[in-house]
Design a protein that fits this description.
48% of the residues lie in helices and 12% in strands. The protein has 452 residues and is α/β, with parallel strands linked by helices. Strands 3-2-4-5-1-6-7-8-9 form a 9-stranded mixed sheet, sandwiched between helices. α16 links the parallel β4 and β5. The chain is elongated, with a radius of gyration of 29 Å. It is an enzyme of class 5 (isomerase).
C-alpha cells in the first residue's frame, strides 16, 4: 500500500473512496472539472493518489487530455510513475471502479476525511500553543482561533451560480415583497424616511455610520438596535467604547423616558421607579446580545458571531466603533493598512453570515477646519478603503454641536453619501438629548403662496 501523507495511524481516510474517485476520472475525464472544483491533491491521504491527482491537475491546466496514457506519462516525467505502482496500478483503478457517475460523491467522501485530518492537526497545534507558558494568553487564543479558521475558511469558497438559479431566487424574493407591500426589504431601522430611502438594511451589506465625537453615533446605533429587536431581529452589538452597563443604561433611558443622569444616580420618583421596572421587564425580552471586549480583532468577532448564529440566530451586527478594533500583529506600524484590513474583514463577516453589519466610524479633524461642517466622504478617518469596502456610508450631523443659536436645536441630519445599490439623500431625525434618543422628525410643510 502507498505511504500516507501523515504518520498518524489514527488519521481518518477512505482508501476505497480515494481509489474510486481517481478511477472514475480515468473512466470519464469530463468529470474531473466538477470534482476538482472542491477536491485537491493535498486532500488525499495516500501519497500515490496525491501524485495521480496532481498529475491530472497539471494536464487539465494545460488543456491536455486526461487518460491512462497521458497520466502515466505525466507521472513518469516527474519520476513518480514507479512510486504509484506503474501503469498497471492505473489500469487496476479503472477496473475496480464500478461507475464514473458517482465521481462527485466519491470526491466529497475524500474531502470530508481530509477536513477531519486537518481538524486533528489543528487540535495538535492548539495543544502545543496552550502548553507554551511563555506566550501571552491573548496571543495563544488568537493563534488558536487562526488555526481553526484556517480549516473552516477552506469550506467558504463559493462556486458559479447559473443564471436560472440566481433568477429563480430573485423572482421568489420579489414575489414575497409584492405580497407584503409597505414592509422594509431588509432589517428595518425603525425610522420611516430612512427605511424608505434604503429599504431597510440589506443582507451582506457593510454600512458605515460616521460622525465627529459627541454627535450621538452610539445613541443612533442603540436606538436602531432596539427598533430592530422590537420586530424580532436578533442583534449583536460589539462595543469597544462603552461597557455593557453604560449601554444598558442608555437603552433603559430611551425606553422609560427617564433622564440618563437620574438613572445614573438612582434618583427616581415612585412613578419613575414603576416605569423603570416595567421597562426592564420589556427590554429583557429583546433578542439583543452585547459584547464589550476592548480592542477586539476581526477574527475574534467572526468567532463570536459564528457561535451566536449557531446558538440563537443572527440578523444584524453593530460595531462601536471600527477604529477601536485591533487588526492583530503585523499592523502595529501602519495604521492605514490596519484600518483597511479591519474594514475588509467587516465586509467579509457581513457576507459570510448574510446579514447587514453597521459599524460606527470616526471622522478626521478636517471637518473642524471648514466653514461648512457637514461631513463628506473624504473625511473618513485613516483609510480610503472604508469608503471602498462599504455598501452604504451615512454621516450624522447636528448643527447644534457647532451653532448653539441654531433654529433647529433638536434636528439631526442623516446624510446618506454613498449607497451602492440605490439613491443617496438627507434624512431629518429628532434627537432628544435628555434621553440620548433618536426619533422620526415631524415635518410640516407650508405653502407660502396661500398666505398672499
Amino acid at each position: 500500500m502507498s505511504m500516507p501523507l501523515t504518520t498518524d495511524p489514527g488519521a481518518p481516510f477512505s482508501q476505497q473512496a480515494e481509489e474510486a474517485v481517481v478511477g472514475a476520472v480515468l473512466l470519464d475525464p469530463s468529470s474531473f472539472v466538477n470534482v476538482s472544483a472542491f477536491l485537491h491533491s493535498e486532500d488525499f491521504f495516500l501519497l500515490r493518489h496525491n501524485y495521480i491527482w496532481a498529475a491530472m491537475s497539471r494536464l487539465s491546466e494545460r488543456n491536455d487530455a486526461i487518460d491512462l496514457l497521458t497520466v502515466a506519462e505525466e507521472l513518469d516525467n516527474y519520476s513518480q510513475l514507479e512510486a504509484i505502482g506503474g501503469q498497471a496500478y492505473l489500469i487496476q483503478l479503472t477496473n475496480n471502479t464500478p461507475t464514473s457517475v458517482y465521481a462527485e460523491v466519491y470526491g466529497h467522501i475524500v474531502e470530508r476525511t481530509a477536513i477531519r485530518r486537518r481538524l486533528m492537526e489543528a487540535a495538535d497545534q492548539i495543544k502545543q500553543l496552550a502548553l507554551d507558558e511563555e506566550k501571552n494568553i491573548d496571543h495563544v487564543i488568537s493563534d488558536a482561533e487562526a488555526q481553526l479558521f484556517s480549516v473552516s475558511d477552506m469550506q467558504m469558497k463559493r462556486d458559479f451560480v447559473p443564471m436560472w438559479e440566481a433568477l429563480s431566487a430573485y423572482y421568489d424574493r420579489i414575489e414575497e415583497l409584492l405580497q407584503n407591500q409597505g414592509q422594509a426589504l431588509g432589517v428595518p431601522s425603525g425610522f420611516k424616511d430612512l427605511d424608505q430611502l434604503l429599504g431597510g438594511f440589506q443582507r451582506s451589506d457593510l454600512i458605515v455610520f460616521a460622525g465627529r465625537p459627541g454627535m450621538g453615533k452610539t445613541s443612533f446605533l442603540l436606538t436602531t438596535a432596539m427598533n430592530a429587536a422590537r420586530v424580532g431581529a436578533r442583534v449583536a452589538i460589539f462595543t469597544m467604547e462603552m461597557g455593557v452597563e453604560q449601554m444598558v443604561q442608555r437603552m433603559v433611558a430611551m425606553e422609560t423616558g427617564i433622564n440618563v443622569q437620574k438613572l445614573r444616580l438612582a434618583q427616581l420618583t415612585a412613578q419613575e421607579a414603576a416605569r423603570f421596572t416595567e421597562a426592564v421587564g420589556r427590554i429583557s425580552n429583546f433578542p439583543i446580545f452585547i459584547d464589550d471586549t476592548p480592542a477586539m480583532s476581526p477574527l475574534e468577532m467572526r468567532t463570536k458571531c459564528r457561535r451566536l448564529a449557531h446558538e440563537h440566530g443572527l440578523d444584524l451586527v453593530m460595531v462601536d466603533y471600527m477604529q477601536l478594533m485591533n487588526a492583530g500583529r503585523g499592523y502595529e506600524n501602519n495604521r492605514v493598512q490596519e484600518i483597511s484590513f479591519i474594514s475588509r474583514n467587516l465586509k467579509e463577516i457581513a457576507r459570510e453570515f448574510n446579514i447587514p453589519l453597521i459599524s460606527a466610524a470616526q471622522l478626521s479633524r478636517a471637518v473642524e477646519q471648514r466653514q461648512d461642517k457637514r461631513p463628506v466622504l473624504s473625511d473618513l478617518r485613516e483609510s480610503g478603503s472604508i469608503e471602498q469596502d462599504s455598501d452604504i456610508v451615512m454621516f450624522l450631523y447636528r448643527d447644534e454641536v457647532y451653532n448653539e443659536a441654531t433654529e433647529f436645536p433638536n434636528q439631526a441630519d442623516i446624510l446618506v453619501s454613498k449607497h451602492r445599490n440605490g439613491p443617496t439623500g438627507t434624512i431629518q431625525l429628532y434627537f432628544e438629548k435628555r434621553l440620548t434618543k433618536f426619533m422620526d422628525a415631524s415635518v410640516h410643510r407650508v405653502d407660502l403662496s396661500d398666505l398672499e
